[in-house]
Amino acid sequence: MPPGPLPSQPLSGDSDAFRCEVVREEAGAARVRIGGALDIAAVPVLEATVGELREAGVQHVILDLSELDFMDSTGLRCILERDAEARQDGVSLSLVAGPPAVQRVFELTGTAARLPFIAG
What we know:
Blueprint: E1 4-5, E2 19-24, E3 29-38, H1 43-55, E4 60-71, H2 73-89, E5 92-96, H3 100-109, E6 117-118
Parallel strand pairs: 3-4, 4-5, 5-6
Antiparallel strand pairs: 1-2, 2-3
Helix pairs in contact: 1-2
């Protein structure tokens, strides 16, 4: 995978559409900047993106939630599953916190302390 940003993958033209952009960070690391709504319609895009990074040999994936407007339980489940897969396969996964409405989902479900959040 070449360094720098890869094209975003919008699901539709509206402002709440899910956006997913991969930025190569350093050797073996990539940041996935996601924005809009992480819901049942967007989960397959995020799953595929993270899967492609892992297949490309990326050893550290950073999920940047700072531009998310909304996340439902399917989005939370997707993140928890990506975290579990990473742990199982020896890949490092970190998250950059989202805005208060998104972080509230983690807090209400008791998963905020369990996930590896880092500074943006």
